[in-house]
Amino acid sequence: MKAMLIRKYGDLDVFEWGEVDPPILKEDEMLVKVYGSSVNPVDASIRKGYLKSFVRLKLPAVLGVDASGEVVKVGKAVRKFSVGDKVYAFMGISNNGGYGEFISIPETFAAKVPDNLDLTEAGVVPGVGMTAYEAFTVHAPVRKGMKVLIIGATGGVGTYAIQIAKHLGAEVTAVCSSEKINLARQLGADQLVDYRSENILNTNERYDVILNCVRGIGFGKLKRLLKPGGKSIVIAGSPLELPLIKLSNLFSSKKTVPFFVKTDGAVLENLSQLIRACHVKLVIDRIYSWKDLPEAHARVEKGGITGKIGIAID
Ligand SMILES: NC(=O)c1ccc[n+]([C@@H]2O[C@H](COP(=O)([O-])OP(=O)(O)OC[C@H]3O[C@@H](n4cnc5c(N)ncnc54)[C@H](OP(=O)(O)O)[C@@H]3O)[C@@H](O)[C@H]2O)c1
């Protein structure tokens, strides 16, 4: 099959347009013709080899942690999906495969694509959408009237986070750059903070839940912005902080909750219901052809993306 593949870790020039063997289908998997994928910050980190100590890719490898497409074959043990279904999934950093013509997706990773989404666009949803959904329903359940602070609110995770927190009844403060304040407002944010002119760490407000989508803001500083009993979710922290977080959680009612999103079709199905009901809309900066993956990865590495970069497997 055709794929954008890498034969070694490295810069943007490691992407190579080529042919690889199609995936071998296991009993609990579906073979999916891919239409859409995305670029996440983690895709760039995997490409550069930064996650080598956690994930050893078998090279040549096809990257892409998100995939959307149409089922063309099902394994013997697959029960919930059939040939012709439109599905999407977060594959996780160990599996990847979204930048190829076909992918084998375990049944438990997948959900049906909502009818109101274009199949290529749908490829931007799984990883970031599930992160925001899991954050506010599992790790720090958001309830009506809670004050929620989202830092990095107009990026991939943040655009879902604003909408999900609002849907759950929260009062949302969004921290983003000045050019994107209107977007954050349209997505439902009640209070807006431009991070270039105001340091959120100096606020006198206190929050029930904080979601920090930005690297380099120490968990201790955010803890000061929590109400007693509040939770601060860390998705972009350093693993070196983990022992300190554990220790700090022992001695305070204000908890810091680091997590890494799981590959879970049930979570994605819950998010899909919000998308079907138009409680959550997609914010897509641009969709690139898979042949322009180096440019798409470069954009994400540079920053300044509004919502997400999609990849059309065309
Ligand atoms: N643990 C997990 O499971 C998990 C899952 C998904 C993502 N992540 C990680 O979480 C982070 C966010 O992911 P993402 O996909 O949302 O990334 P993203 O699309 O790059 O969004 C990051 C956002 O942060 C904003 N930002 C940058 N500096 C800021 C500052 N000082 N204050 C406030 N906002 C600032 C950026 O705004 P401008 O571009 O306008 O400056 C951008 O909108 C990444 O590090 C990613 O690897 C972790």
TrEMBL record:
* Keyword annotations: Oxidoreductase
UniProt keyword annotation of Oxidoreductase present: yes
Query: What taxonomic classification does the UniProt entry list for its organism?
Result: Bacteria, Pseudomonadati, Bacteroidota, Cytophagia, Cytophagales
Q: Which domain of life is it from?
A: Bacteria
- Provide any one GO MF term from the record: oxidoreductase activity
- The kind of enzyme this is, by top-level EC class, is oxidoreductase
* The protein, known as: NADP-dependent oxidoreductase
EC number, as in UniProt: 1.-.-.-
Q: Enoyl reductase (ER) domain location, by residue?
A: 10-311
PANTHER family for the chain: ZINC-TYPE ALCOHOL DEHYDROGENASE-LIKE PROTEIN C16A3.02C (PTHR44013:SF1)
Q: Which InterPro entries match?
A: ADH-like_N, Chloroplast_QOR, ER, GroES-like_sf, NAD(P)-bd_dom_sf
